[in-house]
Amino acid sequence: MIKHLIVIFALSSILAGCISESGIEPEAFFPIPNQAQLNWHQAEYIMFAHFGMKTFYPSSDHMGYGQEDPSKFYPVNFDAKQWVEAAKAGGFKGIVITAKHHDGFCNWQTETTGHCVKSSPWKNGQGDIIRELSEACRAGGVYFGIYVSIIDKHFEHAGSPEFDNYGEYYYAQLKELSTQYGVIDEYWFDGYKADELKMDYSKIADLIRETQPTAVVYESGTMSEFLPDRSLAWPGRHGGLGPDQNYRVLINEQLRWYPSEPSIILQGNWFHNNTPLIALDQIQNYYLSSVAYGVTPLMNISPNTDGLIDQETVEGLIEFKAWVDQLHDSDLTQNDRVKVSADNLRGKSRNFSPEMLFDNNHDTYFATDDSVFNAIIDIDLGSVQEIKGFIIQEYIPLGQRIDGYSIACRVDGKWQEVFSGIKIGYKRIILEGKASASEINFPASDAVRLVIHDALACPLISTLKVIGDYR
Questions:
Q1: In what order do the strands lie in the sheet with 389-394?
Q2: CA–CA separation, 390 vs 407, rounded Å?
Q3: Which residues, 6 or more positions from 51, have their beta carbon under 8 angstroms from its beta carbon?
Q4: What pLDDT was estimated at residue 352?
Q5: Are 462 and 362 in contact (CB under 8 A)?
Q6: Apex 296 CA angle, 294 and 250, nearest 5
C-alpha cells in the first residue's frame, strides 16, 4: 500500500512539474536592454529641440563660434509648456534639448561661465531654459534629455580663469545639470573625443551612474567604454537608417545591447532659420526608415526667436500623429472572424498562445519551446482583404532573437511569399510602396503566414498586425 502511495505521489509530482514547466517564461538571451534602453525603445520617437544663441543668429551654418553676443538671447514669449504640448500633439514621448551647443552658450544658470542666460536681458538674467523645460516635461509626463556639446568654441576662444583645462570645466557643467535639474532620461554627447581637452570620460561615467542611474546615454564612441550597459550608438550619419538593425554589439570584448539612435532634421538647419516644417510625406519616409526599423530617432524641431514652436509646425505634427495612429489602428486582425494558429506552442501553454499577438499588450507574447528556433504562424482573416502592410514586434526585454523571417499571403488557396527580412527587433513596419518594400504590392488575401526561418534562441513575438487601408 505504501509503495502504491509512493508511486502515485511520484507520478503526481512529475505531472505537476510538467504543468508548471509549461508556463515557464523563457530565459533571457543576452545581451538584453536595461530599463533605460527599454524606455528609449518604447518612446519610439523623440523631439530634438535645438535652441540657443544660434537661434538668434540664423544662417545656413548651424555651428556658432562662441563670440555671439548673449544680449541678443531674448526669447520674450518662451513657454516650455507649449513645447511639451506640441511634442505630445505630434506623438513625441520626450524632448532632448541643447543645454549647450557648439558655441558654448549655456541655457541654464551655470556658475562655470558668464556666456549663459545670466548675461541675457531675458527675465533680467534670471531665466533658466533647462529648469523650465525639465519641470514642464515632468508635469506633462514626457521623457526629458539634454544635449551637452563636447565642442565649445567659446572656451576655445576665451578659456576660463577658474578652470585649468576644458575637461574640468565640462565636468563642472555636467555636475550642475546632473544634480540640480531632477531626473534626466537621456544624455546626448556630440561628436568628438577631444582628448587634447583632457576629458576624463571615466569620471563623467561615474557622475552619471551615481546621479542619474536611469539615464540612457547617446555617444559617438566617447562613453560606451565606460557606460556599456546603457549606451546608444552614433549610426554614422544623420537621417534615416537601413532595415535589419542589430542591437547585439561587441564592446570591451563583451556583447552589449547597443542600438543606433538616428538624428533627423524636420525643421530648420537644426536651429530655426525661418524655414517651415518639411512636408508630411518626407516625415513619413523618415519614420519608415527609423521607427519602422526598430530604432528611436530624435526628430528635430526648431523653436523660434520668440521661444515658441511655430503654430504651422504644431499643425504639421498633429497631421503626422494622425497618420501614425491611423496606421496602427488599421489592423485587420482585430476582428472576431480572425483565427490564428502556430506549428509549435511553448509547453502547450495558452500563456504563450499566438493569440497574444493581437491583445495590444507588449508584455505578452507568443513563444516556442526552447529547442525550437523556427516557427510558422498562420492568420486566417475570415475573408479576402486588401493588405497594405504589416507590423511585427519582438519581445525584446528577453533579448533580440530573430535572425531570418518571411511573410506569405494566401491567394486562391496558394501561399505566395511577399516579403523577407533578417532582423525584427522592437518594431518592424513593412508598408507596400514604402521604404524597404518600395517595389512591392501585396495581393488581396484571405490569410497571412509569418515564418521564422532562423532564430538565435526560441523566438518571442509580442505583436503582429496586418494593415489594411490606412490612408
A1: 366-367, 460-467, 389-394, 428-431
A2: 9
A3: 75, 97, 98, 107, 129, 271, 272, 302, 303, 307
A4: 97
A5: yes
A6: 70
- The predicted pLDDT at position 432 comes to 97
Q: Cβ(147)–Cβ(99) under 8 Å?
A: yes
According to DSSP, the residues that pair with 263 across neighbouring strands are: 298
Grid cell listed for 174: 555636467
Determine contact, residues 429/322, Cβ cutoff 8 Å: no
User: Which DSSP helix (H) or strand (E) runs through 3?
Assistant: helix 2-22
Q: Is 161 exposed, middle or buried (0-12, 13-18, 19+ CB in 10 A)?
A: exposed
Cβ pair 184, 135 in contact under 8 A: no
**CATH architecture of the domain formed by 35-329:** Alpha-Beta Barrel (3.20)
Question: Are residues 446 and 381 in contact, defined by beta-carbon separation less than 8 angstroms?
Answer: yes
Task: For residue 126, give the amino acid letter.
Answer: Q
Length of the chain: 471
Query: Across-strand partners of 299?
Result: 47, 264
pLDDT of residue 1: 39
CA atoms of 241 and 244, how far apart (whole Å): 10
Report residues of the chain scoring pLDDT below 50.
1-22
AA identity, residue 269:
N
All three cell numbers of 38, joined, read 527599454
Query: Strand, coil or helix: what is 250?
Result: strand
Which pairs from 349-356 meet CB under 8 Å and 24+ separation? 349/22, 349/23, 351/22, 351/23, 356/462
Q: Where are the domains of the chain?
A: 35-329, 339-467
Please, what's the b/e burial string for 436-469 (b: 16 or more CB within 10 A of its CB; e: otherwise)? bbeeeebeebbbbbbbbeebebbbbbbbbbbbbe
- CA distances for 312 relative to 126, 266, 273, 304, 319, angstroms: 30, 13, 14, 12, 11
State which amino acid sits at residue 189.
Answer: F
The CA R_g of the chain, rounded to the nearest whole Å, is: 26
User: For residues 396-422, b (16+ Cβ closer than 10 Å) or e, as one string?
Assistant: bbbbbbbbbbebbbbeeeeeeebbebe
pLDDT at 63: 85
Q: Which amino acid is at 70?
A: P
Q: Are 263 and 48 in contact (CB under 8 A)?
A: yes
Tell the CATH topology of 339-467. Jelly Rolls (2.60.120)
At residue 139, what is the residue type? A
Q: How far is CA 192 from CA 85, 150, 196, 219, in A?
A: 33, 7, 10, 9
Nearest Cα neighbor of 87 from 141, 42, 27 is 141
Grid coordinates belonging to 175: 555636475
Here the cell at position 263 is 538624428
Does an H or E element contain 328, and which? helix 311-329
Using CA atoms, how far apart are residues 148 and 255, in angstroms rounded to an integer?
Answer: 28
